[in-house]
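Study this:
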Amino acid sequence: MHYSTKIVEIMDTRHKNKTIATFLATFLGGLGLHRVYLYGWHDKWALLHFISLPASILIALIAPDQPWMFTGCLFVLSVLAGCIESLTIGITPDDAWDARFNPDSGRQSMSDWPLAILLVLTVGAGATALIAAMARISDLLLTGGAFG
C-alpha cells in the first residue's frame, strides 16, 4: 500500500462526535437518528426506532377512542430508549468512545461543557417524565382517572 493511499483512507474515515451523538439521542432518539449517525442507515435498531412513530399513529387512527397514552406507547418507549442511550453515550469515556467509533479517524475526542449540559437536561427530562407517568398511573389506579 502506498503512503498516499493510506492518507486518503484516513481522510475518508469520519470522526464521530460524542456530543453530536448525545444531542441526537436526547432530542431525536425516538426516531433513531443517533443510531443512523453512529451505525448507518442499515442499523436494525434505528429502523425499529423509526417505525415506532408511524406505528403509533396507525394505532391511534385505528382506535381513536383509546387514550393517547396507550396508542402512542410504542413511540413513547422509543423516546425513553433514546434518552437511556443518550446517557449511555454521554458517560462513555472519550478514549473508549474513540476506540469503538473512531479507531482510524486520526483525531481524538475531547468532551466539553455542552455534553455535561446535555446530560443534565436528559436526566431532568427523564425524571420529569418518570414522575408524570407515576402520577398518571396513580390517578388511573386510585381514582379511575378523575383528574384527567
